[in-house]
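thought: fold this chain, then report.
action: predict
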Amino acid sequence: MCQRAQPWLGTLVSIRVEAASSVAAQAIGAAFDEIGEIHRRMSFHDPDSELSRLNATAHRAAQAVSSHLYRVLSASLALARASGGSFDPTVGRVLVERGHLPAPAGDAPDPGARWRDVSLSTDGRVRFRRPLWLDLGGIAKGYAVDRAIACLRRQGVAAAVVNAGGDLRSFGVRHTVWVRDPADPGGGVPLLETRNAAVATSAGYFNENPPHPAIVEPQTGAGLGDDGSVTVCARRAIWADGLTKVVLAHPAGSVSLLRRLGASAVLLDRDGGRHHVS
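observation:
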């Protein structure tokens, strides 16, 4: 196996592949190019990103967006609808207010704006019904992992693991997933084994801005994840990534949605408890 790592998406992304050395180097390079493209388009921090331009202009007129951004927005709104708003990509305003994201230039968002104020047209345009700030940090990383996996498959790689700071997907190889122990975040525990599956973990125990959690319940603003973690296993990383926030917000209420998407979840708490949701 050949492995490389690069900083993208606000974390360290590692790609491990099984292929001849010449093929491996080219495949890994192409996969990182794909991840870099998604990072540049969907970064909230970069004022020149496609997402930043959309946040500044889409309340004035419908804006044409790339296929990448359109797909992630489509998935975000589908998950928001299916979860009753427990996942909401318009949470950017709250995260800016709490110091987790930089304040963008331009019009301030409407405090009442929610996911229903984002409209996607069939011709690839996006329109906001009122000013708002989209933040795709809760789902775009999973999408980037999926795109990297698709790229590696096209390159003829026999087996691979892509890990973007806990958002992970593999094919052709059995992989043991380790997660941080909520009782001792400096240590890890083996949670499950995967093959041809995606896994994502969300938790609030590394919050660097107390008392304002970085993961919030969009409808109430309540902080999530301080008492433990949620790991979701799904077919695609985009769903695993987004679903972790839904399960953190409403573990019992997420069962039907997990089943609909062929996913399952494991909750770890600070007392050593392990609870399965599926």
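thought: worth noting. The chain is about 30% helix and 25% strand.
final: tokens above.
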